[in-house]
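so my prof wants the structure for this chain in the tokens format not the other one, which i didnt know existed until like an hour ago. anyway here's the sequence
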Amino acid sequence: MISFKNDYSEIGHPRILELLQKYSETQFNGYGLDVLSNQVKNRIQALLKTPVDIHFLVGGTITNKVLISHVLKPYEAVISADTGHIFVHETGAIESTGHQIILVPNESGKLSPETIDPIYQTYTDEHRVIPKMVYISNATETGTYYSKAELSVLYHYCQSKGLYLFLDGARLGVALAASKLTLEDIALYTDVFYIGGTKNGAMLGEALVVKNDILKPHIRYSIKQSGGLLAKGFIAALQFEALFQDNLFFELGNHANQMAIQLTKGLNALGIQPLYPVLTNQIFIDLKSNVVDQLLKSYAFEIWTDKGSIKTIRLVTSWFTKPEMIESLLTNLKHLL
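here's what i got, hopefully its the right format
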């Protein structure tokens, strides 16, 4: 079975497995208070000009839940695109903390001052929650990304309105590769973001980067209370020790995008046009249901929507995707069409 279902189907990149073996008999302090964790934090800090606090968590949902609940008062809310991960794929994790998600309809998966401002202007009295945070994903759930200009404009708008800008970087690797943004750009134009390891070659792990000084105090308490403070915090840190050696993190993101480009060209040659522009590593296409059923016998992928005779499927490439995997899928698809 060849998987195009997601970008975290493999255990981890070989360099991570090598480091695990290297440190397998080394003893570390717990809860991220160890030499290795500090070393990795310094490595990431060196890529940024702004002083930040860095915390390692295991996955995206716990990172989103911890950060949003840590930042917001009980009567404050977070603004998100209606395709946002915190709304669509996190089982009410944010709502379970007592915070409302205010949804913005969108077509590109992205938010802008123009789409946010009507909410800011409307939620103005004590009978409604106070919008206090804007949540965005980069790359987005439809595979688009924010340009430097878009991110700058959005951040400065948020600053002018007293809103925190939080960037979900679960797929930051592919977004940086496609947009040519740097980690320093991301830090410059957000209050807080995270670097996704899980979907870019790591066994597990997200590196939460907090720039805004107001948000830094006591966040470890919030992480612990939410069950996110790993006793073996050095395991999560080790993922990023490998990823940030010799530009591996950025190379893996670029490879995933290049494989998506190759797959898209092959689909176009078969007369199949993706539903959204393919800018990173996610491709959405419509196929007849009988074709989808046949493909599922040999390939794993998500069925995004089922319209009866037609199904929308999502194909995701990753650091692990090989050209021969793509050729296999395209050959089978050609026969089925």
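also thought this was worth mentioning. The longest helix spans residues 248-269.
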